[in-house]
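A favour between colleagues. Tell me how you read the following sequence-structure pair.

===
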Amino acid sequence: FNLQLWNNYFHLAVAFITQDSLQLENFSHAKYNKIQSKYGDMRCLIGFAIRDMWYKLGQNKICFIPGMVGPILEMTLIPEVELRKATIPIFFDMMLCEYQRTGEFKKFENEIILKLDHEVEGGRGDEQYMQLFESILTECAQQHPGICSLVGSFVSLVKGLLERLLDYRAVMGDESKDNRMSCTVNLL
């Protein structure tokens, strides 16, 4: 097992699907349709490959926690529903791997909270992501009773943080200092 090779693969694949020139939602409707009909959404194709390769790592997955949390988060925040549905379960698998090794998933939790703050501040994330994140992780956790309550607490924590981060981002352009201050206090 060559850790550096796999690490390079994952980082390269995430860099590919997150590049600006593939963010189809930023294009005009005509350009979007033309690219979709000619090439399809390459982000999904690569995202599915990342997901498949992640699950093939077996016992070596633990080597990528917490290092791959940020890149996987960046990928799941792409506003493409099928990509999100296919890749958000990787987070549960990361939690499960760390839990099976240490009895908790604090490294994963700390890393995702840190990276989520950075990503939302950068303009990524939306209400739909928050709902998918909650429903997918809750559904995954129900199949593992031993970790279910921990995952539920984690999902509530991240959902609350994401709500506050999205509120904060929304009011940053607001003229009302009271609204900005209120969101800042809530976030803190």
The chain has a mean pLDDT of 90. The two ends are 42 Å apart (CA to CA). The first helix runs from residue 3 to 17. The chain has ten helices and no strands.
